Amino acid sequence: MCFSTLGITMVAKEFKVDLNKPLVCQVGQLEEAYQEWVHQPIVSKEGPRFFENNFMEFLTRTLWWVIPIVWLPVVCWSALISIRMGMLPFRAALLIMTGVLVWTLLEYTLHRFLFHVKTKSYWANTFHYLLHGCHHKHPMDGLRLVFPPAATAILCIPLWGLIRLLSTPASAPAIFAGGLLGYVIYDCTHYYLHHGSPSIEPARHLKRYHLNHHFKIQTKGFGITSSLWDIVFGTLPPAKKAQKSS
């Protein structure tokens, strides 16, 4: 049963997570110890159980190939809307590329400032674990590497509204298509960096770069599909540490 009343602070600090039980209702009880615990990865392809309820547990697991199957048709449909509204295909392609670039900045910003926010309260720890902490604790859990489509659909609503507000009616669908395409590339790339065995560049570099973020220096290297914004904002990992992870 999930509850947040912990009693004496000393008891909370001594709380031990039982990996054989559903984790979501436990991690909040770690309080200030959560940050240290969640950044000590367990390398296993077998992921932990999150919830006692089977349906809730099912919602937390997503096969990687579901992402392109669900979202690439939406990308194509959105781009086609702009073209049907009179936009030249070349201009639509430029706006799609712009959307992809904007996504890479959003990817970096979310990863750095939201996914790596410091938490210590029960509910903040629980939310962070569900959002990203579980990935750092169990980085090889292949069923929790990509974002569930239902959650992505909910987040697309405000994103679409913002794009419509800042652009023209004909441009908005193409920009949205680019942003969504960037997300699909991100999720598929992220899965491949964890479970693939790249033999050529730049894929080999990206894999080393991302695993360095997980296992060496977790406060640097926030880019997944590119290190561009790490370069721009000065969050590249030190060269020596990056080399050690290869």
Describe the structure.
By secondary structure, the chain is an all-alpha fold. The chain has twelve helices and no strands. Helix 5 packs antiparallel against helix 9 (171-195) and helix 8 runs antiparallel to helix 9 (171-195). It is globular. The model is unreliable at 3-12 and 241-246 (pLDDT under 50).
At a glance:
The chain has 246 residues and is an all-alpha fold.
Specify the helix fraction band.
55-70%
Q: How far do the termini sit from each other?
A: 43 Å
Mean pLDDT: 91
Sketch the topology as an H/E string, one letter per element. Answer: HHHHHHHHHHHH
Number of strands: 0
Largest sheet: none
Strand percent estimate: under 5%
Shape estimate: globular
Poorly predicted runs: 3-12, 241-246
What is the alpha-carbon Rg in Å?
20 Å
Structural class: mainly alpha
Tally of separate helices: 12
